[in-house]
Amino acid sequence: MFKKNRKIILSAAAIVATSLFLLKPASLQAKSSDTESKLQAYLKFTRVLNLIESQYVDELNTTTLINKAIKGLLSNLDAHSTFLDEKAFKELNIQTKGEFGGLGIVVGMKKGVLTVIAPIDDTPAAKAGIKAGDIILKVNNQSTLGMTIDEAVKLMRGKPGTKIKLTIVREDKSKPIVVEITRAIIKIQSVKKKDIFLDDKKKDKVLYIHISSFDAHVVESVKKILKENPNAKGIIFDLRNNPGGLLSQATGLLDMFIDKGVLVSQKGRVKEENVVYKAHKEGTNTQIPITVLVNGGSASASEIVTGGLQDHRRAVIVGEKTFGKGSVQIVVPINKKEAIKLTVARYYLPSGRTIQNKGITPDVIVYPGKATQKKLNPLEIKENELKQHLKAELEKIDGKKEKKKEKKKEDNITKESNTTKVDKKKVITQKDLLNDAQLKEAYDILKALILSNKGK
């Protein structure tokens, strides 16, 4: 009798619950449905967890299983979200100090495979010939397929002086190549400056500023360079193989050359992550012509700078399409020893376009290599040089060699043209330009911008 009554009571309760559900406003019904869906999902996860714990071939404790579940969950969100266990969390703290034993490469996931974003200048990886766009197939004898970025980085870091082998797949190679690299303490000089003279008198010049990463000193360094070179006619910013860095330095650099409007914005689900970074008029140089060099190794902060200058029409961008990394990650501790790195927002350029997975297409596309040089046509030689040129051609026919005289002539020309002594390490010569087609194009465009500014 009790059982029968219990069934009736339960049935009645179900009818009442159903009636209440049907009588609820649509918004409350939807909320209730979401809650029910969440509950079912949690129950499913618990059932799977219990099943693995009780029947999996190897005995695993609950903590290990939960850690594996968290790691799998985050890695399936995107390439940059990840679980940081105790060891990984410690290594992250070491990395932020700016000095660590490693190779000097920045890696990312592209099309699901571990890809070199850029080798950092003057590091073991750069000296060993690692290139932007290289796919890392193996670290020592361990395959990187299915590996997270953080797992790969953990493998590549190690004690300075120890060796590591990377198996690389490169676009222009028919089969994988193995590169052996010796780990070292990575110290980065983020900003380097050289001069490019506009004529033989070496009075007018443009500044070539190579930024290898956006560390905490970039804005300070560039401001110092500009202060020391007030008469510079233009700037070439070389952001090739620059994997990014601090957002504050990217916006700070943009703010030096853009006097109004949005520099970059970030948008996420949480209101606090929606931030707009705007330009300030004070101390802005809106007149100096600028060209920017980029390639497939230019990512994140580099793309923010490039895109900002491009959208504001403040610079001409030269080179190849950039990497396409435009998301924001935060590190959230979940206890004293572990944390998660989670993507919480995406960057948007002033025009509203996103960088993520799209990159930035340069205004002028130029592929790496040597610049093409037109052969000398005797009819195009200036009158005062023609006689000397024809004399040299005559000597070739007659089989005469006057190397000493030619050398003396070159020395005289050098003395006449180089009225000021220059440090070759701090100057980019015509020969250097001809060896770098992208730089040559950026320089030629900058010269044209300088000339057009003179006409205003």
Written description of the protein model:
The chain has helices at residues 2-23, 26-55, 62-75, 86-95, 124-127, 149-156, 218-228, 247-255, 301-311, 383-398, 403-417, 430-434, 437-454, and strands at residues 82-84, 101-102, 105-110, 113-119, 135-139, 142-143, 163-169, 177-182, 184-185, 191-197, 205-211, 235-238, 262-268, 275-278, 290-294, 316-319, 327-333, 339-348, 364-365. By secondary structure, the chain is an alpha+beta fold. Among the domains are: 82-185, Pdz3 Domain (Roll); 191-365, 2-enoyl-CoA Hydratase, Chain A, domain 1, CATH 3.90.226. A 6-stranded mixed sheet has the order 10-11-12-15-16-19, sandwiched between helices. Strand 11, helix 7 and strand 12 (235-238) form a beta-alpha-beta unit. The longest helix has 30 residues, at 26-55. The radius of gyration is 30 Å and the shape is globular. It starts with a helix and ends with a helix.
